[in-house]
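Have a close read of this protein, sequence plus C-alpha cells, and explain what the C-alpha cells say about the fold. Thanks in advance:
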Amino acid sequence: YRKLVKEIIIGKGITEIADFAFEDYENLEQIVISDSVSKIPSLAFLGKEEYDSFGCPKLSSIIVDKNNQYYKSIDGVLFTFDMKTLLKYPQAKPDLYYEVDARVSNIGDHAFSRVNKLQCLKVGENCRSVGEFAFLNISSLRHMYFASSVTKWPSYFPFIEQVGFDKPYRLTGIVIKKKKNSTIHKLCNKN
C-alpha cells in the first residue's frame, strides 16, 4: 500500500514522528504536519538503510499547520519554528536554485540528503553549522556557495570524495568564502 500513497496528513493529537516514518513511500509527494507535532527527528525522512533506500524520492512539499509552535514550512521546506535550523528540503522539490533563508544558523543532519533536482545552493552569512550527512547523495547539485561564517562542518567535509555524492563529477564548484583563521580556512590550507 505504501507505493500508492501520494499524501500523508499527520493528524491532530500526534506529537512525534518516528525515525524512518516515511520509509518506502516511493510516490509520496506531500506531507502535512498538524499543530500538535512537537518532535521530528532528522531520520524521519530516510530509509533504515540509507545507502539502499531512497527515502521519499517524489516528496516535493512539507506543509506545517500555521498554529504549530515547534515547526514551520516556507515554500515546502521544513524549519524549526524559530527559523534557526533548516530541517528538511524535500527530495523532489522542483527548484533548481535555493538560497537558504537568512535567519537560518544551522543546516540540520540529512537536511538535503538525496535531493534530486536542486542544482545550485547558496548558504548565507548567518549560517554557523552544517549537520552530518546534510548533503548525502545529492547527485543533482552543481554549485554550492558557503559564507565564511560556518564554523562547524560535518566530519566528512570539505573533502569532495567523501561528501557522499552519487556522482561527484557533476559538481562543478564549491565556493567557500574564506576568512583568515576560520575553521574552513584551516581545513582548506591543510591540503
